[in-house]
Design brief:
single chain, alpha+beta, 7-stranded antiparallel β-sheet, about 20% helix
C-alpha cells in the first residue's frame, strides 16, 4: 500500500503527542521564568501593582492566601511571574477553573501551557493565565486545554467565586477570621459564595462581627458599624478617694476607708442591667435570601456574633466601672503594702498577776483588735511586786508588743465584721527606763485561734513533695505521649497539691488537696482522647500544648479523664507554689523570666521546655494561657473563705498565665486574669486538668 505525502503529516503529529515523549514542548520550565521584567500595560491586568509597571519576581511556593498571581508571556519562550492584590472590577470578567476539581495542584498548573483549542501548536499557548491557591483563571477564553501524558485534556470550568473588599475604616483597624488576624484595608479573593463574616477591632470602638452576602463573580463590600466606646462611668456617693488612700498613715486608716467604700457601694443604686448597652449595639442580622437560620454558615456567624457581643458588653461594663474598680485596686494595693509591716504596740495590760512560771498578762484594747494573753519571764528580771503594782502606770512601766501587722478578717456576709491581730512575735517591758526582754508564750482567744488562717500561720505545713521529680515528669508527661497514650498514662503526670492557705484577691483562703497536671495538655493527648477531627491546630507538633480549643471542649477532655478544669483559685495556688509574688523569678537571685516562660515568641514550644515552679508545674507562665472553670463576673468583692469557685453568675470564663504572644514580663503575672466567651478559641489559649486528690477523704469541689 502506498501513502500520499499529505497522509504522513497527521500521523506523525499523533505519534509525537500520543507517545508522551515530547510533552516538554507543552510545558513551562523554571528557566523560562525571567526576573525583573516589566509588564508595560499593567493597567489592563487584574493584578494591582505599586505603579503603572508590574515587575516580575521569582517563582515561589506555596502561593500566599489572598494574593493573585499572573503568568504573562513576554515573548517566545519567556514568561514573567507577577503577584499583587486583585483588582476587584476586573475579577468579574475572568473565567474560573477549580484546580482540585481538575485534579491539579497550583505547582503543576503553573508549569503547564494552556490553549484555547486542542489544535494549537506547542508555543501558541495563552499569553495571560492567573492563579491563586485554589483556582486558575483565563482573561480571554471560556475553555482551556493542556497536554498531559501525550493527550489533550480539557479543563472543567466552574462558576466564579466572589471578592470581598474591606476599606474606609479608621487607621489601625484589624479584623479576625477564625484564628487569623489581618490589617485593613484588605481585599479577599477568592471567597466562596454564601455568607462571609469577620470580627473587627476598631480603635476607640467596640468589637463587632459583621457579615456580607457573597455572590458569583461579584465584589461585596464589608463595612462594619463603628460603635464608639461609651465612656460614661458609674459614680457612687463616697468620700473615699485615691488621694485619701495614698495619704493613710496606718493600716487601720486604710481599713476604715475600705469598709466605708464597701458600704457606699452597697448603698449605691448602680444599674447592672444591659438596656443601655443593647440600645447602642447592633442586633444579629437575619440570613441572606436563600439561606435559612439552620445552615452551618449562618449558625457559625451567629455564634461568633454573640461571642463578640458578649465581649463588647464586658468592655462596656468595665468602662462604666472604671472609677469604682480603680478605687478598689488602690485600696487593695495599699492594704497589701501596709500588711507587710511589723509594728510595735504599746499597751496597758487588762490584768497582770504573778505565778510560779513568771507573769500572766492579759492585753485587750477597746476594739478587741488586740486580745492576747502572755505567760513568761523577763530578762533581766523585774521586781515582781513593783511590776504588778505599777503595771498600769505608763510613767513607770511600758509594755511593748511586736506583731506582724496582718490581722485576720472576720466576715458577716460580704462585709468585714471585725479584725484581730494574731501574729504576735515578742513582748518587752521597760521598767523605770530599764529594758527587759520577755521569754514566754502567747495564747489567743478561742474564737480567733479557731480561724483557719490563724491555724495555718501557727502550724505551717512543709513544702509539698510531688509524686515525681522534674526528670521523671519529662519522661512521663512528654515522651510517653509520642505513641498513643492511654487514659491511665495521661493521668500519671499529676502533681499532688496538699491543703494550705494563700493570699488570694486580698483575702486568706484555704484550699483542700487536689491533683493537677504538671504540664499543659498536648496535641497528641487531645487527639487520642477526644477523636476530634473538627479542631484545626495552628502548630502541629504533637508535643506542643493543645490550642484552638474552646472552654467547652477543654472541660469535656478533662471530664473524660475523670477530672475537670481547675478553678481560678486552684490554678493560682498551684502555679504560685507558696509564693506571694505573681512571678516565679523576681525573688530568686539570678533567675530570668525566659528560664521559666515562653513569651515574646513566634509560637508555643513543646511542653516542659523551661524550668518548672517549686511544685514541678511547667509552663504556668507563658507558652499558652489556660482556661479555668470559673465564671467571670463584671464586679465582685466577695471571695469564699474555703475553695473559692468564682462568680455565681457571668457568661465569660476566666483564663490565666500569659502566652507565647505576651510582649512583656508583666503580662505573665500569675495573679492576673483575663476572660472570654466559652465559645472563644485561639492559638494562644490551652488548658491543664485537675483531679481528685489521692489523699483519703478529699475530693474536688
Amino acid at each position: 500500500m502506498q501513502f500520499k505525502a499529505w497522509m504522513w503529516i497527521p500521523f506523525f503529529a499523533t505519534i509525537a503527542i500520543a507517545g508522551g515523549t515530547r510533552d516538554f514542548r507543552f510545558s513551562v520550565s523554571d528557566e523560562h521564568f525571567k526576573d525583573n521584567v516589566k509588564v508595560v500595560n499593567a493597567e489592563n491586568t487584574c493584578v494591582d501593582g505599586d505603579s503603572a509597571h508590574l515587575h516580575s519576581v521569582k517563582l515561589h511556593f506555596p502561593l500566599e492566601s489572598g494574593k493573585l498571581y499572573l503568568r504573562s508571556k513576554i515573548k517566545g519562550n519567556q514568561y514573567g511571574w507577577f503577584s499583587g492584590n486583585i483588582k476587584a472590577p476586573c475579577y468579574k470578567d475572568l473565567h474560573a477553573f477549580n484546580l482540585q476539581a481538575n485534579h491539579l495542584t497550583a505547582l503543576e498548573a503553573v508549569h503547564m501551557r494552556f490553549y484555547a483549542t486542542p489544535h494549537m501548536k506547542p508555543f501558541q499557548d495563552e499569553g495571560e493565565i492567573y492563579f491563586d491557591r485554589r483556582y486558575l483563571y483565563s482573561s480571554r477564553v471560556k475553555t482551556l486545554y493542556f497536554v498531559q501524558n501525550g493527550k489533550w485534556q480539557k479543563l472543567v470550568p466552574t462558576s466564579l467565586t466572589g471578592v470581598v473588599v474591606v476599606d474606609s475604616l479608621p487607621k489601625n483597624t484589624t479584623l479576625r477570621i477564625d484564628a487569623d488576624v489581618y490589617n485593613t484595608p484588605i481585599t479577599f479573593a477568592p471567597v466562596d459564595t454564601g455568607l462571609f463574616y469577620a470580627t473587627f477591632f476598631i480603635p476607640d470602638a467596640y468589637p463587632v462581627t459583621e457579615g456580607v452576602h457573597v455572590t458569583t463573580g461579584k465584589t461585596a463590600s464589608l463595612r462594619p458599624r463603628v460603635i464608639p466606646l461609651d465612656t460614661l462611668a458609674y459614680e457612687i456617693q463616697t468620700e473615699v478617694t485615691e488621694e485619701k488612700i495614698k495619704g493613710t498613715k496606718s493600716l487601720e486608716e486604710t481599713e476604715i476607708l475600705y469598709d466605708r467604700f464597701i458600704d457606699d457601694m452597697n448603698a449605691s443604686d448602680i444599674d447592672r442591667g444591659t438596656i443601655a448597652f443593647d440600645s447602642i449595639y447592633p442586633k444579629v442580622k437575619n440570613p441572606p435570601r436563600g439561606m435559612d437560620k439552620n445552615q452551618s454558615q449562618y449558625v457559625a456567624y451567629a455564634a461568633t456574633f454573640e461571642a463578640t457581643r458578649s465581649r463588647a458588653r464586658s468592655l462596656w461594663f468595665s468602662k462604666r466601672l472604671s472609677k469604682i474598680t480603680s478605687l478598689n485596686q488602690a485600696l487593695n494595693a495599699r492594704l497589701e503594702e501596709q500588711q507587710m509591716d511589723t509594728v510595735q504596740l504599746e499597751l496597758i495590760p487588762e490584768t497582770i498577776s504573778k505565778n510560779d512560771s513568771g507573769f500572766s498578762i492579759l492585753f485587750k484594747d477597746s476594739l478587741q483588735r488586740t486580745q492576747v494573753e502572755w505567760n513568761g519571764r523577763f530578762t533581766p528580771a523585774v521586781p515582781d511586786s513593783a511590776l504588778v503594782a505599777e503595771a498600769k502606770n505608763p510613767a513607770i512601766v511600758r509594755f511593748v508588743l511586736t506583731v506582724e501587722n496582718k490581722p485576720v478578717w472576720k466576715y458577716d456576709g460580704a462585709r468585714v465584721k471585725s479584725r484581730h491581730h494574731y501574729r504576735f512575735l515578742r513582748l518587752n517591758v521597760r521598767f523605770r527606763n530599764a529594758l527587759s526582754v520577755g521569754e514566754g508564750t502567747f495564747t489567743l482567744p478561742a474564737e480567733i485561734l479557731s480561724e483557719r488562717e490563724v491555724q495555718e500561720w501557727l502550724n505551717p505545713k512543709p513544702e509539698v513533695e510531688t509524686v515525681e521529680t522534674a526528670q521523671n515528669l519529662a519522661k512521663n508527661s512528654v515522651q510517653t505521649v509520642k505513641a498513643k497514650p492511654s487514659i491511665e498514662e495521661l493521668s500519671r503526670a499529676v502533681a499532688e497539691i496538699d491543703s494550705g492557705t494563700f493570699r488570694y484577691k486580698n483575702r486568706i483562703v484555704h484550699m483542700s488537696p487536689f491533683g493537677i497536671r504538671k504540664t499543659e495538655v498536648t496535641i497528641a493527648e487531645y487527639r487520642d482522647v477526644m477523636k476530634d477531627s473538627t479542631t484545626k491546630f495552628t502548630f502541629n507538633d504533637s508535643l506542643m500544648p493543645v490550642h484552638n480549643v474552646n472552654w467547652n471542649k477543654a472541660r469535656n477532655f478533662c471530664k473524660a479523664l475523670g477530672g475537670d478544669l481547675p478553678t481560678e483559685a486552684q490554678w493560682e495556688f498551684a502555679a504560685r507554689a507558696g509564693m506571694n509574688e505573681g512571678s516565679l523569678w523576681r525573688l530568686r537571685k539570678g533567675d530570668q523570666a525566659f528560664q521559666f516562660a515562653i513569651f515574646r515568641a513566634d509560637g508555643p514550644q513543646r511542653v516542659a521546655s523551661t524550668k518548672p515552679n517549686a511544685w514541678d508545674l511547667y509552663d504556668v507562665s507563658g507558652n499558652v494561657a489556660e482556661w479555668t472553670r470559673d465564671s467571670y463576673s463584671w464586679f465582685s468583692f466577695y471571695v469564699e473563705e474555703e475553695n473559692p469557685t468564682g462568680a455565681l453568675f457571668g457568661d465569660n470564663r476566666v483564663f490565666k498565665g500569659g502566652s507565647w504572644n505576651s510582649k512583656t514580663e508583666d503580662e505573665l503575672d500569675l495573679t492576673d486574669r483575663d476572660d472570654e466567651d466559652p465559645r472563644y478559641w485561639s492559638n494562644t489559649l490551652g488548658f491543664r486538668c485537675v483531679f481528685p486528690s489521692k489523699f483519703q477523704g478529699n475530693s474536688i469541689k
